[in-house]
Amino acid sequence: MFACRSRRKLFISQFENAVLGFGFKAEAKTGMERMQRPLLLCAALILTADVAWGQSPPAPDQTEQIRILLERVQELEKRVADLETRPPAGGAAVLTATSAPAAATPKQESTESPVSPAQAHRHESQETQATVHQMETHYPSLQIRGFGELNFSATDQKGTTSGFNLGQLDLHLASALSQKVSYFGEITFNAQPTGYTVEVERNIIRYDYNDFFKISFGRYHTPIGYWNTAYHHGSWLQTTIARPEMVKFGGTFIPVHFVGFLVEGNIPSGGAGLGYSAGVGNGRGSTISRPGDFVDNNDNRAWVANLYSRPAKLYGLQMGVSVYRDKIKPLPVPPSGTDFREWITAAHIVYTKESPEFLAEFANVHHQNVFTNFVTNSQAYYVQVGYRLPWLEKALKPYYRFEHTHVPLSEQVLTNQDLVQSILGVRYDITNYASFKGEYRNTKRLPTEPRVNGVFFQTDFTF
Amino acid sequence: MNATNKRFAAILLMMIWLTITVQGPSTAQTTKSGDIAVVVNSDTPVSDLSLSEVRKVLLGERQYWNSKLPVTLLIRAPQARERDVVLKVIYQMSEAQFKQYWVAKIFRAEAASPPKIVYSNDMQYDLVTAIPGAIAFVEARAVRPGVKVLRVDGHQPGDRDYPLH
C-alpha cells in the first residue's frame, strides 16, 4: 500500500512536470531539463501502464483457475448439502436425465464427536458405496410418463360443428427387469361421444443379447416407414397436431399395429449406421384397421422387415425401406372373394435436427385377389418441413406438410381414402414439456367434393 | 494551440492509451478453454473411439461395449461445463431438445432409461470406478488415476485437434 502510494505520488509529480508543465515553463528550461523531459514522459507512461495493468482483469490462466476453483467450491457445497440431507440408511431414488433436481431439505444439526482419520476414511468409503448403490439401476425400475392434449377445431365443411376435443390421455410405461430384459407398455384413454374407451396400444417384453440382436414379443407399432414407430400416441412428441393420413390411428392404409415377435438391432457397417428390424405376427384382423389381437383370423402369419441407415457423417439423417407381407380375410366379405394377398412397400428419408426438420415417406399397398388374381395398387406419401427459429429461446417452429393418398376405385379391401392436403402451422414450446400448436388445413378428398378449410389448435404436454 | 488545448490533448491521448492498455488482457481471454476428457471404467474394452462412435454411445444407439457389458451413461447436471460441451459438440442439441430426445427414445422402446445425472466430479469418479461399463465426461485437468481416458478421433485431451472443448 505504502509503495503504491509513493509510486502514485511520484507519478503525479512527474506527470505534472513532464506533461502538464509542457509549454508553461518552456522559457525557463535548460538543456539538461530538455533532455530529461522525454525520459520523464516515458517513465510516466510506464508507470501508468503499470497502474492500468494492475486494474485489468486477471490473465486467462488465472481466470480459468478461478472458474475451476469456483466450480470446485460449488461441488463441495453440493456434496456437503447432500451428506447433510442424506437419510442414514440411504435409499434415495435414482436420478435420471429427465428428472428435476431434488428439493433441498432443512439442514440437520449434528452433535457427533470428532472422529479419527481411520474412522473418517471408513465413513467416506461407506458413503461412496452408498452413492454407487443409489445410482445403480434397481430392478424392476418402472417409469411412467403421461401425455395429454386438448384440441379445438373449426372447418367450413357442411354438417360439421366446431368445438373442443379432449383427445387422448396416454400412459407410457418402461421398466428394466434386469440388465438385459425390459418391458414397454402404452395405454390410451380415448374420448368418445358416449364416454372413454381404453386401449392397450403396445405391450412389449424385450431381451437384448447385444446391440446387434434384440428380440421382443408383444403388440407393437408396425415398423413400416418412419412415423409409425418414431412417434407414438403422445402428440407432444411430434411437430404437428395430427399424424399423416397414411399412418393415422384407426386408419386402414397400413396396419398400424402388429402382434407377434420382432428382432432388431444394428448391423456392423461402419459409418453407414445400418440397422434392421424384422418380425412375424398375426397381421390384420377381420376388421382391417385392427391387428389380430386374439388370434390370426386366417391362420396365415404376416411378416415385416425394415432396413435403415443413419450415416455417421450426416448426423440427424435417416433413410430406410420397409416390406410387409400378409394374407388377409376382410369383413364384410367383398363380392369377388374373401382372401387377398397384401404387399406393402415403403421408403422414408428424414432429417431430424429441427433447423431444418425434413420428413418424407412413401408407401404402396398392393392387393391381389387370391381367386381372381385381380390386382390393385394404392399409394400415399407426405413431405413435411419445419424449422426451429433461433429467436425466443428456439421455442417457435413453423412447419408445412403436403400429403397425398390415392386409392383406385377398383380397390376392394380399402375404402376410398383419396386425399390431397396442405397443412401450415406453428408449434410453440411453452416449456420443455408442453407445447401449443396452431394449424391451417386445406383438404380435398374426392374430385366431386369441395375443398375444406379448417383451423385447428392443440395444447399438448407430457407429465 | 493554446495551453488548455494542449493539456486537453495530452489528457485525451493518455486516456486513449490507458483504454487500449486495459482492453489488452480482455481480448487475450478468448483462448481455448480446457478439454473435456472421456473417461470410462478401467475394465471397459475400448481405448479409442471416433467422435461419431462417442455420439452413438451418447445417443443410446450403442448400448453395449460387448454382449456382457452394458454402457452406463453418466452426465453432469445442468450448468456444469462438461454437460454444456457434451450437448454442444456431441448431441448438438439444446437442453430442451436433449430432454425431449430421451423422453422419445425411451417411449419408442429403444432404451430402458436415460443417462444418469451426477452432481459433482467426485460422484463421477466414484461411479466410473465402481460401475463396469460406465462412461463420463470430466475436465481433462481434473482427471484422476483409476479411470481410463479414451482417445477421441485418435487424439488425447490436450492435443491440438482434440474435438471436445
Strand order of the largest sheet of chain A: 1-3-4-5-6-7-8-9-10-11-12-13-14-15-16-17
Largest interface: A-B, 80 and 67 residues
The geometry of chain B reads as: elongated
Going by CATH, the architecture of the largest domain in chain B would be: 3-Layer(aba) Sandwich
What do we call the CATH homologous superfamily of the largest domain in chain B?
Periplasmic binding protein-like II
Task: Provide the helix percentage of chain A.
Answer: 10-25%
Number of domains of chain A: 2
Which CATH C-level class of the largest domain in chain A is it?
Mainly Beta
CATH second-level architecture of the largest domain in chain A: Beta Barrel
Low-confidence stretches of chain A: 1-35, 45-60, 88-112
Integer-rounded radius of gyration of chain B: 23 Å
Largest sheet of chain B: 6 strands, mixed
- Cα(first) to Cα(last) distance of chain B is 55 Å
Name the structural class of chain B: alpha/beta
β-strand percent of chain A reads 35-45%
Radius of gyration of chain A, in Å, reads 35 Å
Low-confidence stretches of chain B are: 19-32
Task: Describe what this molecule looks like in 3D.
Chain A is an alpha+beta fold. The radius of gyration of chain A is 35 Å and the shape is globular. Chain A has helices at residues 2-20, 31-55, 60-85, 117-135, 227-230; strands at residues 141-155, 163-165, 168-176, 181-192, 195-210, 213-221, 257-267, 274-281, 302-309, 317-328, 340-351, 357-369, 375-386, 396-406, 419-431, 434-444, 452-462. Chain A folds into 2 domains: 2-53; 150-462, Porin. The model of chain A is unreliable at 1-35, 45-60 and 88-112 (pLDDT under 50). In chain B, strand 3 and strand 4 (69-70) form a beta hairpin. Chain B has helices at 3-27, 51-58, 81-91, 95-107, 121-130, and strands spanning 36-41, 48-49, 64-66, 69-70, 72-76, 116-118, 134-139, 147-152. The longest helix of chain B has 25 residues, at 3-27. With 165 residues, chain B is α/β, with parallel strands linked by helices.
